């Protein structure tokens, strides 16, 4: 199969995945409006993002080519220390505001064309911030407010919070990591990783 044909199949798969997430979100929202107290609560935006990831990773694992899709809103290339290798960051945005992903592709230049060696998928507009034990959430909120960031919710780990960044450019996450890591009482500021796959042998 020609490289161009593989890209077309990849784009179709990404499109179908985004559509399915839209359907799931709409269905659960309608169910939440029902008066029955047994109805499951609507999905959070992080849960919506996670639902899209398996299909994306499967497409990479099967085809091993850089993504091409109408849902890509921005891209940026970065150098990589390995020979004939570079990193491509893309912002993937679905039909709903919550469908916002940052994908990091490690790409190797090969005779048959560029091939994806590995992929990392994360939220495009969030960090997981861990603070020193005993640090109140309002202390962190006050410290990051000048950057335009805010606490979204508690993370699963102790003394950790999910922080929203209010932007979605390729450089948003690394820039925010540098800023927040310098804040007093912050132990770490990491991307909100959603999954990872090593795509090639």
Provide an overview of this structure.
With 201 residues, the chain is of the alpha+beta class. Helix 1 runs antiparallel to helix 2 (45-63). The chain contains four helices and seven strands. The radius of gyration is 19 Å and the shape is globular. The protein folds into two domains: 3-123, no CATH class; 124-192, Alpha-Beta Plaits, CATH 3.30.70. Strands 1, 2, 3, 4, 5, 6 and 7 form a seven-stranded antiparallel sheet that branches. The longest helix is centred in the first third of the chain and has 30 residues, at 3-32.
Q: What attributes characterize this protein structure?
A:
201 residues, 4 helices, 7-stranded antiparallel sheet, 33% helix, disordered N terminus, single chain, Alpha-Beta Plaits
Radius of gyration: 19 Å
Calculate the terminal CA-CA distance, rounded to whole Å: 20 Å
Inertia-based shape? globular
Compressed to H and E, one letter per element, the order equals HHEEEEHEEHE
Uncertain regions spanning at least 5 consecutive residues: 3-9
Please count the helical segments: 4
Quick check: average pLDDT?
81
Percent helix: 25-40%
């Amino acid at each position: 199969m020609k490289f161009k044909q593989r890209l077309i199949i990849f784009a179709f798969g990404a499109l179908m995945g985004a559509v399915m997430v839209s359907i799931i979100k709409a269905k659960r929202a309608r169910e939440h409006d029902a008066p029955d107290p047994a109805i499951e609560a609507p999905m959070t935006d992080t849960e919506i993002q996670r639902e899209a990831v398996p299909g994306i990773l499967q497409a990479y694992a099967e085809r091993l080519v850089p993504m091409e899709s109408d849902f890509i809103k921005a891209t940026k290339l970065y150098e990589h220390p390995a020979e004939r290798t570079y990193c491509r960051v893309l912002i993937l945005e679905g039909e709903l505001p919550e469908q916002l992903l940052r994908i990091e592709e490690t790409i190797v230049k090969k005779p048959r064309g560029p091939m994806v060696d590995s992929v990392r998928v994360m939220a495009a507009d969030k960090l997981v911030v861990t603070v020193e034990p005993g640090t109140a959430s309002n202390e962190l909120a006050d410290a990051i407010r000048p950057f335009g960031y805010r606490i979204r919710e508690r993370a699963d780990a102790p003394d950790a919070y999910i922080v929203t960044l209010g932007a979605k450019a390729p450089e948003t996450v690394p820039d925010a990591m540098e800023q927040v890591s310098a804040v007093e009482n912050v132990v770490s500021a990491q991307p909100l990783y959603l999954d990872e796959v090593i795509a090639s042998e």
